[in-house]
Amino acid sequence: MGAGMAQLEGYYFSAALSCTFLVSCLLFSAFSRALREPYMDEVFHLPQAQRYCEGRFSPAQWDPMITTLPGLYLVSVGVVKPASWIFGWSEHVVCSIGMLRFVNLLFSVGNFYLLYLLFRKVQPRNKAASSIQRILSTLALAVFPTLYFFNFLYYTEAGSMFFTLFAYLMCLYGNHKTSALLGFWGFMFRQTNIIWTVFCAGHVIAHKLTEAWKTELQKKKEERLPPVKGPFSEFRKILRFLLGYCMSFKSLSVLILLTWPYILLVLAFCAFVVVNGGIVIGDRSNHEACLHFPQLFYFFSFTLFFSFPHLLSPTKIKAFICLVWKRRMQFLVITSVSIFLVWKFTYVHKYLLADNRHYTFYIWKRVFQKHDIVKYLLVPGYIFAGWSIADSLKSKSVFWNLMFFVCLFTSTVPQKLLEFRYFILPYVIYRVNIPLPPTSRLVCELSCYALVNFLTFYIFLNKTFQWPDSQDIQRFMW
Hints:
The protein is mainly α. The chain is built from 23 helices and no strands. The protein has helices at 3-34, 42-53, 71-87, 91-94, 97-122, 130-142, 145-149, 157-172, 176-189, 194-223, 233-246, 249-276, 294-306, 308-311, 314-326, 328-345, 350-354, 359-368, 374-377, 379-392, 398-412, 424-433, 439-462. α1 packs antiparallel against α5 (97-122) and α2 packs across α3 (71-87). The chain is globular, with a radius of gyration of 24 Å.
């Protein structure tokens, strides 16, 4: 990239970040005026952060209803406390609800910059149009509705995203000790973020496996061995290669030397689980792990909805139908297995049925509860969504895809509660890694996100309601 183009891209980036932050500040002001008191999970998070802000760190001060580690509160204190020393503000001001919420707005600025850096690192920079595409992609993910909404409340989403993206960026630059350290802070915000630290290690492993696989293929090409044929021939070849690679002490030693910071962090996590008696701290009654396989299908649907400009087109639908016809026996097996998983492993959390403040309540009530057969009729749509997602990642190696989908499975399937917040991190990592779409599709994506954000913010701020047994104002949210 020439110096002039780089400078122009810098101007575009600065303008996009400045405008986004300005709009966010205006929305933050509207939120602050409408929400004078803690709302939803803030009733646990804000008082706990205020106790830390006042210097009360003893275990006796911990709210047992909180299920995540204190990363959010510790970082918040580290951000707001210096303000009292520098500006002479009182403790009442720096530990206020507004000031603590503002910490997440600062995280959102960091996330914007990290997304931009990730797009620069992950995506090739050999196209003339790639500058504007990177800026638009960054802008779209920065205002991704389910993530952007929680920038204005004192939730763990923004900080969790910041440290996980930062860890991934450091991994891509080969700074694995820093990546593991940042992964630890991501874990301190939300325990399940350890999965995406494993993904960073998986990225390193996938890179080495891809190199070895290419060497293996080149050897076979030179030896002119006859190709193995059959419906699962490629799978068998890869499986044999992986088994041979894992049996090599030299290969394993190289992988361990490359990923030892992540291994140490995973061992520390295992020790935490043993000592704590589980991954959840505090109230565990509503956070029980289970094999909720349809969560993977819900994620596919969620991704298809928010990435429809990239995943849904007449050409894609036609290609999918042709592939189904060509491999109808394989798709028949996939459909049968999917129907079985929906039948035997669909769980409905009591919060999903009881809390009418979340959009998932209405989706479940008006779609899935219409008739028992609906959940089975959606299976072909799930399969198309899953195929479309996999097809959009075909530029990545088979080993990278394997690592990503294993981590996706691990982060979604054990969750009993259907909540869109659980899909944010895997969605963003997926979206960063697909090839840069054409500018027209990015403009469409950004426009749709802006419209969804406008509607959700308008509904949240203006369409309030009350429960019959409570005087508190209730609001609709993700």
